[in-house]
């Protein structure tokens, strides 16, 4: 708390409250002071005063594990991290040209991207309210840039609408709002909301609907300057003698509904995907690398944990040094285990039956991501699409245009597939080359004629074949939350679990970090009480 | 047309069509090939073959004038630019720390911003479909970065709603959509749309409304996980033992309507403000400077035009060298005049009565912009607001958070006022210091307690007091367009006008550039035919 500048500011006070009372007290104080509740993050934890010589072994050098190690070392613990991969970051990871990656099944891909280009197989965007991620990015010097989620010029393809021709989000969204506004206005006129909305409120609502929906003076959403001001023009406004614009024609509303644009709305407007989003400059993996620098010297890479024992007043972790094949042991007073549950359930774990049941109870989702490098940014120069996402009802589900390096020249990597559900297993069952070819084929619906012509090379990651996670992320449901969640996150004698699977922000880095902070805060308390 | 790579691509063909047939033919071809009509820009003009020794004097080194000079010189003309200011760019302009600016009336401001910080008094954002601006930014090496227009965490203040307390766009927008969806669904149930929507379509529409509006299973927009997934949480999802989230409570719908959030929607979704928008790294003035480099040596700065004569087979421009007070003359075969109409109407202009009437017929709008430098980016660190705009019904109309340097530390400049209409004249009537104080007072509604506390210094530009434009931009209406527009843009013997005022994209740089390209294309044709 820096009071050198005079009277304490509200920020100083909040910081002091956080330091003295911890996250939950700070949270209440912020609420009382009228702060929006953007996050449960209340600043870095204050974990000083570890007993001399106390030690912690952290399993996994993903974000949760590295944050635990970083903060516990600051608190005075002797810390060691055991990590299977030969790099920090875990699922926080970018694949660059020259990298190679071998998946389960043995297929190895050598990434062919041009210098600086990348695919983020895992996380790829950071919401503005993921305060923990943003805090540590700033603290660890990770440069961020905007991630473009919503782009009005991006496309929506639905095989059941518009004869399978992709249309712009701009036109579909304009037509959705416009028709909804016109219909609701008509319903008010038809007394369809009598008893729900008073006549006076109905009139005021209609005025708002007119502006919102770009209706004309007769409350109709029709071809004209109003609708064109949102959906665009057949001939856009220009300069000189042909400057006068010509409006475009709204689509048939039933086709608009069939396109599923309302689903895209729900995507873009969802709390986790609202503007402003961020990404690290140079790839999401920059975060893992920055965390890795902070714990340099603490990590034993290429080490596969085979057994976790906590008898005899200590935690003993048995692991195999992958390069040499030799078996080794790490011993500490406590353990923070961030190993994904699908892997952990296959490791001999000396813990309560409840914890072991919880570990076994939560399945992992699968997802496949494909990066397609294109020779040029033709979507920018030819279609005025800068970043953002084009959606389709095909198995690839979407393609995303790079938010980095916009308006520059040279080759660039499109996220060519981001599959969910059954489509993921179908893609995972293919060879990497087949996945790339399939993504290229399916994505051509957005840019027919250009997509294949501009294609240069591709890389595909199927998370179910990832040797270090065996899946994408933990899939809790209402029943498993009820039966297993509190057991999973509780300190189990000398061991505590952390990671996105130990949070309610599953699949997001923020969940991993918040889980880690909560876990080490409780472990530290346990250690001081021991 | 580069055919070295093999068969001509569609792009090659379009380029060839543009070169051979000009903009209008290219436009038709693009339409026929299924290109979205994003712009009337069809690539740089092809103006080769000027008669040896032919010369053009360009009045004004704003973007329109500099582009005209750049392209006409390429075509072979001898070009000279006469500019009143001592810098290139005109209204494209950034004020940096150390700059000083004297407005009409004599008030001089010395800008106090920290190094690198700036206010853009004029243009400040570039839509994705302003293809001419984007083309020349790329060609002239202007680095661009995203401009954040829509930000869900930004605020909306309306003195008539919520007791004058600003609320987040996120919550208001979620509640607007949700209530509209619920009402329309109810109206369908109440048969309020019988005869408009079939029963089957009504059912399908309801399913879409449920997803779009975040309705629950009973088609209600109520407190719960659905609405919270968009509007946010009282306790957001977290990690560990307190991970479970607590939903927030939707606002009363009549307050939401009164807030005018539907007006903000219309702003953000309008064609000219849709995602993705851009700004130059380091200030909008970077564009003017980059254009200035391209015409280096051609510009006579500090020169005030007093008379334009086109008798005797040439154009003779009389101007005063402002520094010395001496009168001088520039002579050329033709003239591209980009002087704003409010200034031009005060200059002796030897042109047809029709053109002179047109010049006199178009009034200029006024606007005041205020830059407020704050000691820290408290809106980012404390309120999770990164870029974007907070709206108010107070005279300042909005404040905008900087899109540049997001997540960095140190002082930053907020656009503290962007006035329209009568409010602009009220602000223009104040001293610059009073404008800054008033903007600070009014903007405090968004960040009470913090705004004044963090304020460091400010700068205010009132366009009605700008010596080089006497206003903001040309205000055409339906009648003046009909009576004067074609006369204004026509080549008048040896003179042609260009600028945003000679376009249908008024107040935008794109209008100035497209107008310029159209004007010089016709002037060149006239010169070749002469």
Automatic annotation (TrEMBL), chains A, B:
A Pfam entry, by short name: Amino_oxidase
Boundaries of every Amine oxidase domain copy: 63-519
InterPro entries referenced in this protein's UniProt entry, alphabetically: Amino_oxidase (IPR002937), FAD/NAD-bd_sf (IPR036188), Flavin_monoamine_oxidase (IPR050281)
EC assignment: 1.13.12.3
Q: In which pathway does it act?
A: Plant hormone metabolism; auxin biosynthesis
Example GO molecular function: L-amino-acid oxidase activity
Q: Name one GO biological process term.
A: amino acid catabolic process
Record key words, sorted: Auxin biosynthesis
Which top-level group of life is the source organism from? Bacteria
Catalytic function, reaction form: L-tryptophan + O2 = indole-3-acetamide + CO2 + H2O
The EC class name is: oxidoreductase
The UniProt family comment states: Belongs to the tryptophan 2-monooxygenase family.
What name goes with this protein? Tryptophan 2-monooxygenase
